[in-house]
Design brief:
By secondary structure, this protein is mainly α. It has helices at residues 8-25, 34-41, 45-57, 78-91, 96-115, 120-137, 142-158, 163-180; strands spanning 61-64, 70-73. The chain has two domains: 3-73, Winged helix-like DNA-binding domain superfamily/Winged helix DNA-binding domain (Arc Repressor Mutant, subunit A), CATH 1.10.10; 78-180, no CATH class. Helix 5 packs across helix 8 (163-180). The two termini are 38 Å apart.
């Protein structure tokens, strides 16, 4: 929908949704009730409902109806990013092998960054060593071994110091893990 064709009510709803989105991303666990939002923003109930619908479409809230109703907040994480990325990759007909190749390109970058951490010997190496030991113990159990080996990759990404790389690669890892299940 072009900006010129948007109704005033829709523009109001987008403005309210933007304010609420900022609160969610800043860490809000709950949103006010519809009555409170109508009062706070000085807008109509349909505008508030449309704002919540926008946030629901973005995956930031789930609106429950009825006596236990309200907006349940969902902060974005690697899994939610992976879901949307997965839809985009599916829509572009990107094969699963391409995702695997992408991870093979990016995981060594994470390993290099983890290796540069000054606290790696105290913080990272003990955790990775425990994981390797656990995988050695589980080698006879294919499912357990696969799960523990996958956790090794998750740990490397988790300990990557660059937050952007950690979240991007974490999203790809979550997407790959969902394909493995």
């Amino acid at each position: 929908m072009s900006a010129a064709r948007r109704t005033p009510q829709h523009r109001i709803a987008e403005t309210v949704a933007g304010e609420l989105r900022d609160r969610i991303l800043a860490g809000a666990d709950r949103l006010p009730t519809q009555d409170q939002l109508v009062t706070e923003f000085g807008v109509s109930y349909p505008s508030v409902r449309e704002a919540l619908r926008i946030l629901e479409t973005e995956g930031l809230v789930t609106v429950r109806r009825g006596s236990v109703g309200g907006a349940e907040v969902h902060r974005p994480d690697e899994s939610s990013a992976a879901y949307h990325l997965g839809l985009a990759l599916q829509g572009a007909a990107v094969p699963l092998g391409d995702l695997a190749a992408g991870l093979q390109l990016l995981e060594p970058l994470c390993v290099a960054e983890v290796a540069r951490r000054t606290d790696r010997l105290k913080v990272v190496v003990p955790v990775l060593t425990r994981n390797v030991d656990a995988s050695a113990e589980a080698v006879a159990d294919g499912a357990a071994f696969t799960r523990i080996a996958r956790e090794f990759h998750d740990l490397v990404v988790e300990y990557t110091p660059n937050a952007t790389v950690r979240h991007v690669v974490g999203s790809l890892v979550a997407l790959w893990s969902a394909q493995e299940e």
